[in-house]
Amino acid sequence: AQRVTQPEKLLSVFKGAPVELKCNYSYSGSPELFWYVQYSRQRLQLLLRHISRESIKGFTADLNKGETSFHLKKPFAQEEDSAMYYCALLYGGATNKLIFGTGTLLAVQP
Amino acid sequence: SQTIHQWPATLVQPVGSPLSLECTVEGTSNPNLYWYRQAAGRGLQLLFYSVGIGQISSEVPQNLSASRPQDRQFILSSKKLLLSDSGFYLCAWKLDYGYTFGSGTRLTVV
Known about the structure:
The complex is a heterodimer of chains A (about 110) and B (about 110).
Chain A: E1 3-5, E2 10-14, E3 19-21, E4 24-26, E5 32-38, E6 45-49, E7 60-61, E8 72-74, E9 83-91, E10 97-100, E11 104-109
Parallel strand pairs in A: 2-11
Antiparallel strand pairs in A: 1-4, 3-8, 5-6, 5-9, 7-8, 9-10, 9-11
Chain B: E1 3-7, E2 10-13, E3 19-26, E4 33-39, E5 43-52, E6 55-58, E7 65-70, E8 73-78, E9 87-95, E10 98-101, E11 105-109
Parallel strand pairs in B: 2-11
Antiparallel strand pairs in B: 1-3, 3-8, 4-5, 4-9, 5-6, 7-8, 9-10, 9-11
């Protein structure tokens, strides 16, 4: 069965430090993976998806099929990056269901 | 434009009372729609999805039900709420680039 694992509930870093939010997945098919972000008092929104291979707000994520990982990285954290981050996997063919990890709260200290 | 609306934003209901949460989308036809519940420390759990009018699939056994009376309307209901139904409920819509989420409903059952 499909599964998404985010091992860290909380990641606290100082401003300017590098950030890596870990995500591992389990899926028998070809994975389509996403990172969603939820800032305080805002709705959940798409940050990036692996098939677009783009960088949003300085964040990047590379799909590593060998390690079944999709870690989110940013070289220099900013205070405004503080938020809840969810890794998600699309599955179910035409039904397009999304399974989420449990999320990682990123806290960037000044 | 493509938008998703969800209401109410917050709701406090007594145990045993009925529930109706509504989600509507604009700017599309025949969308895939989803209800998720976000519980503390457990991430987002898919409850129901619908690929068309009157078509509802349930992902987990529970005290809730869903209906899709119109193409762009998705309703989450319960006949009798339980304490365990408390949580944050999110409606979502699958677009070409990923999901977009409603602003959510914070339900507290007392």
